[in-house]
Amino acid sequence: MIKINIRWSDIDANRHLANSAYINFMSYARVVFIRDAGITQQVLAQLNLGPIVFYEHLYYFKEVLPDQPIFINVQLKEMSENGCFFSFEQEMYNQKGENVAAYEMMGAWMDLKSRKLTALPGFLMDKFNALTTVEDFKILTKEDTRKHQKAPHPIDPKIIKEALRG
What we know:
The protein is of the alpha+beta class. It has one domain (2-165): Thiol Ester Dehydrase, Chain A (Roll), CATH 3.10.129.10. Helix content is 25%, strand content 34%. The chain has helices at residues 19-36, 41-46, 122-129, 157-165, and strands spanning 2-4, 49-60, 70-79, 85-93, 99-111, 116-117, 133-139. Strands 1, 2, 3, 4, 5, 6 and 7 form a seven-stranded mixed sheet that branches. A hairpin with a 4-residue loop joins strand 5 and strand 6.
């Protein structure tokens, strides 16, 4: 469980935790979670590996107000056999233990030289396999990464040029 203190800069015009702060805190908690397992920035830099996000889903249950610490639990939800693809499930709680938000994300590892998706080396797979997982953990397939059926839709460049002029 990772404790985070809410700062003034994390609050929006409604005087509660801003949407962007939820995403930033979830990302921070994930980094701490894998760092504590020995998957550090230094290790990733040596291997030229970087995580990329395919999607993030955030569910709000109760507002978070200033001066109230929050606590985030992180668990590995899914991972492909070679470690390339992964998903995490996270829960955010207030100091009363109330679940104020839930979050899921899916991502992959990218080789920062080739700019292509890549499998994890064996020693990092061992570290990932030791992470805390959800009860219904599953092996992630490439097909699972397409479950939301979203694809890019190009726009006519003329529309962009017109927007730039306006």
